[in-house]
Amino acid sequence: MPRTAAPLLTSPIPRVADSDRRRTSASVVLRSVLEHGPVARSTIARLTGLSPASVTDYCARFAELGLIRESAVLRRSKGVGRPHLPVDLDDSRFVVGGVHVAVPHTTVALLDLRGRVLACREVEHAGAEPAQVLARAADTLAALLSGAPGSRVLGVGFAAGGWVDRDSGTVVEHPLLGWREVPVRELLGARTGLPVHVDGHARALVNAERLFGGARGSRSVLHLFAGHVVDAAFATHDEVHHGPRSQAGSIAHLPVPGGTEPCDCGRVGCLQAELSEGTLCRRAREAGILDGVNPMHVVDAAAAGDQVAVRLLRERSRRVGRAVGLLLDVLNPERVVVTEIGVMHRADCLAALREEVGEDRAATVSPIGFPDSVLAVAGGAVALDVLYRDPLAASPDAI
């Protein structure tokens, strides 16, 4: 008998491909407006390779959704003809909420469509019971929104360290908080009534750098986050690698040659144990620099001239540099972004890190572009990444 199965399979494939193509095209158009606006539609067509008719259609749909608007300033082309009326991002209507759960506190923020922090509060943990932490975050977000009555909310982004599964919206495991299999999307969504998007903070900050920071246009980006939690993320060809159940980037227990810090896993010299802010603060307390657990107090002491604080920060940055060097050898990215308090706030710490990386690769390494709002940006960037990947899904009926 003649084969008849193959023709039956051909009809849905173009529809799926067309849907993916439309989503990708819409994404590159809106990101072109974000990066270059105010920008003429003809320039967007040239930058993206899309037809002028397609760009005009997408811009009309974005304007209907309230994501872009026509600029009041006419731009004349270099040749003869009518001046162009450029389009620009409309950052006056929509906001996203951002929730980042760290070890000592939760950061709750509102961000506009350009990734700028409009309002932010830190909420200290009164215990780390997940439902309680998320309920307080939702209540804080509601309070921030009450202070921005004209804003319409597209959704909430949630970020944290540890093992965070984007697809299920779950914190699978966060050993420092004692969280396991916490259904963040479900709990936070029920409390806020808003769409909730969930991801790990290292991946969230890679997306923030690629959308709003210095990594725009980079073909591959490595991000190393060294806070209380130490983890990494890698993006290539406009995609952040997640791996099965979003477990990629778990580097906390990589062995550090010569490391002496005991780790909760029972070994000595694990990367997180050596580099964590908890270790930095303990060493600072032992040196009499501070009596608390805030690593920024070590930075403040160094800024005031305390040479022991300076030494501790530089030594930590050097250890971070060695970790970056190892990851560079494995992944060979075009750009490296580092989130670490010494590197973010002190030129000598950045120099120490780059020295460890090596002269031939030092120029590829830079600190995160949001040194004063890292955690606020991390949470909001999760939601903004969803928007810029599929802008036509943005609802004109957002709350």
Q: Can you characterise this structure?
A:
With 399 residues, the chain is an alpha/beta fold. The protein is 43% helix and 20% strand. A five-stranded mixed sheet has the order 5-4-3-6-10. Helix 7 packs across helix 14, helix 10 packs across helix 11 and helix 11 runs parallel beside helix 13. The model is unreliable at 1-14 (pLDDT under 50).
Tags for this model:
disordered N terminus; 43% helix; five-stranded mixed beta sheet; 399 residues; alpha/beta
Summarize the structure.
The protein contains 14 helices and 15 strands. By secondary structure, the protein is α/β, with parallel strands linked by helices. β4 and β5 form a beta hairpin.
SSE topology:
Blueprint lengths: L4 H6 L1 H25 L4 H8 L3 H14 L2 E3 L16 E3 L4 E8 L3 E7 L5 E8 L5 H17 L5 E9 L2 E3 L4 E5 L4 E4 L1 H9 L3 E5 H12 L7 E7 L3 E7 L2 E2 L30 H5 L1 H10 L9 H8 L3 H25 L3 E5 L1 H5 L1 H11 L7 E3 L6 H16 L10
Parallel strand pairs: 3-6, 6-10, 11-14, 14-15
Antiparallel strand pairs: 1-2, 3-4, 4-5, 7-8, 8-9, 11-12, 12-13
Helix pairs in contact: 2-3, 3-4, 5-6, 7-14, 10-11, 11-13
